[in-house]
Amino acid sequence: MTDLVTERLVLHPMTVGEAERVVAGEPGSGDRWAPGYPTDGDVFAARRFLGTCASTGDPQPFGNYEIRRREDGRAIGGLGFHGPQDTNGSVTIGYGVIPSAQGRGYASEALRELLLFARTHGVTCVKGDADHDNIASHHVMLAAGMRSAGQDERVRYFEMTWSDATPASTSEQAHR
Question: Where's the N-acetyltransferase domain (predicted)?
Fold first, then answer.
């Protein structure tokens, strides 16, 4: 699996070893973590990834990705899939960036790339959710092109659907 690259970010597919270090909170010699990384959310996602690897094998390309700034290579957060696509072609995603990196559009930029990646890999629907009071996360999903898809007493749901699973057109890629 190769890195996904955006204008300002590198989305690096996590390996088992990287996930183990995130869970332990101890970077390896080659890891470049920004202060505040990993967050509790990153540790939770790494544990889920490790559990999936142990039970069914590495889920790539539908695994976890470390969000790194291109300018300095430092990890500032993570995003990824909660698992492979279901029988309907649907996946669920999650993401987060460290507090010092919030408010700069990094999460939306990373999510737009992951949405494009999902579509080019045959996914027909990407779902996400955020607590009602997590307005910043609502903005991230809307800015990435997802639409509101309902709510319950705890969370607001978002999704992006495509009527086909073909790769994005050139004009869609130009508007990322």
Answer: 9-165
In angstroms, the CA 60 to CA 62 distance is: 5
**Is 132 within 8 Å of 151 (Cβ atoms)?**
yes
Alpha-carbon distance 91 to 174, whole Å? 24
Helix (H) or strand (E) holding 112: helix 106-120
pLDDT tens per residue across span 75-117: 999 999 998 899 999 999 999 999 999 999 999 999 999 999 9
User: What pTM was estimated for this model as a whole?
Assistant: 0.90
Under 8 Å CB-to-CB from 156, ≥6 apart: which residues? 129, 130, 131, 132, 138, 148, 150
Instruction: Give CA–CA dist 58/66, Å, rounded.
Output: 15
